[in-house]
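Bench notes, afternoon.
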Amino acid sequence: MSTQPSAFSIQITSVDPDPSREGQGGAPLMLHTTRGDIRAAFHQSPTPHAGIVWVWGANGGLEGPAEGIYGRLADHLAGEGISSIRVDYRQPRNLMESVMDTLAGVSFLKARDYTSIALVGHSFGGAVVISAAPLSPEVKAVVSLSSQTGGAQNAGLVSPRPLLLVHGEADTRLPPMCSRSIYLWAKQPKELVLFPGAGHGLRECKEELDALLKKWLGEKLRAA
């Protein structure tokens, strides 16, 4: 019998702490899966009612755009009953494998009895979370930041989950037309927020973005 993982499945076989990344925010973990090992950081709320999986761009990593927004918001939202797992890709730039990594993050939270989960991705990760959302009933909301269009053509399948699209109007790497196109492909409920003067990394609007995501994610996960 073949021991190779099937094309569209991933299972977590065990979880270990990763002491090599102490001090980088959250609890550093290594998720051992049927498709390989995934680096992650878990921010556990003392009184959780929902969870978030955060993924970054085509180069992978855990910090996120806007000068490390993922760790910053994960710590803040933990105080509001929302736990987070930040997930690093095993194979950056590989859309299908990155979708599997995102779903491993969902499985990690699901195993801890989280049934209301949001996905947040930036750039390449925007397409990753749009592709991953329809594959898990636990996913209740999706945020796509500065997203590429490649891999996001199935945005209509995110519905009935709410979808928030955010883009900087001064983005020269992936122009705001990308999020405008995804918005047209998506079905309700959907929102598009454009920040004037903000580039691809959304550094110029980080305070506004922090406030937007805190409010939006809190509201959608509470409603779910």
